[in-house]
UniProtKB/TrEMBL annotation:
The keyword Transferase applies. This is GCN5-related N-acetyltransferase. PROSITE patterns: GNAT (PS51186). The keyword Transferase applies. Keywords: Transferase. Gene3D superfamilies: 3.40.630.30. Residues 19-173 form the N-acetyltransferase domain. One of its GO terms (molecular function) is acyltransferase activity, transferring groups other than amino-acyl groups. PANTHER family: ACETYLTRANSFERASE-RELATED (PTHR43328), N-ACETYLTRANSFERASE DOMAIN-CONTAINING PROTEIN (PTHR43328:SF1).
């Protein structure tokens, strides 16, 4: 595993055994709309995630996420193609030391251990580079794969918000997973910057 330190001239990149995490860039649009436009992905994410995922959606995603020195979102690159995303948003007001982590992967790549590698890397990246004290994820009740990814990455199952979400006109329980900075153990084997 190799790690490029985020210097002024270096874009952040993580080479993992299953994939590469790297910034979004122009040219990713076609692969993005191809892999993201999937009802089985949409069923597990927020409604603002587009379905169908049009070329226009892909252009706007790439435009707003490319060229950041310390990006909030990294493309999951397999064989040069962007086939998923792992990223976070920092909350505001009294929640301003919280980051919500989120991710999706093209269905062709499910079950290869990609997200099990990517989530610990993103977790480490957030705690190392951002003033965040807690990282959390919200998982819909049917999403066993995502719960396994978070548990394996050391996240704690904190709560079930009963019927908090609505998807496809059905109320669903939302499972909250979280990790505090003081609980974070670096599972990545990356050198300290
Ligand atoms: C959930 C998702 C991110 C998992 O990514 P992935 O790279 O396929 O996951 P991995 O291959 O690392 O698998 C992690 C574990 O979950 C298990 N798993 C994966 N998909 C599963 C499923 N549908 N049902 C049950 N277990 C599943 C794997 O067997 C593995 O278990 P193990 O560690 O005991 O071997 C991916 O399926 C996805 O993008 N889904 C749609 C979007 C989504 O759910 N995003 C997250 C919202 S919270």
């Amino acid at each position: 595993m190799t790690y490029d330190l985020p210097k002024a001239t270096t874009l952040i990149t993580f080479q993992l055994s299953t994939c590469r995490l790297r910034p979004w860039r122009e040219g990713d649009e076609e692969s993005l709309s191809k892999h993201a436009s999937n009802r089985r992905i949409w069923n597990n994410v927020r409604d603002f995630f587009p379905y169908p995922y049009t070329p226009r959606d892909a252009h706007s995603w790439v435009r707003s996420n490319k060229s950041q020195q310390m990006p909030n979102n990294l493309a999951i690159d397999v064989d040069g193609q962007a086939v998923g995303n792992v990223g976070f948003t920092v909350k505001d007001d009294i929640y301003r030391y919280n980051a919500e982590i989120g991710y999706w992967l093209g269905e062709d790549y499910w079950g290869r251990g990609i997200m099990s590698e990517a989530v610990p890397i993103m977790t480490n990246y957030i705690f190392r580079n951002f003033q965040v004290n807690r990282i959390f994820a919200c998982v819909l009740e049917q999403n066993i794969g995502s719960m396994k990814v978070l548990e394996a990455a050391g996240y704690r199952h904190e709560a079930i918000h009963r019927k908090a979400a609505v998807k496809n006109n059905q109320y669903l329980d939302e499972h909250i997973f979280a990790m505090l900075r003081e609980e974070h153990i670096d599972l990545t084997g990356l050198p300290r910057s």
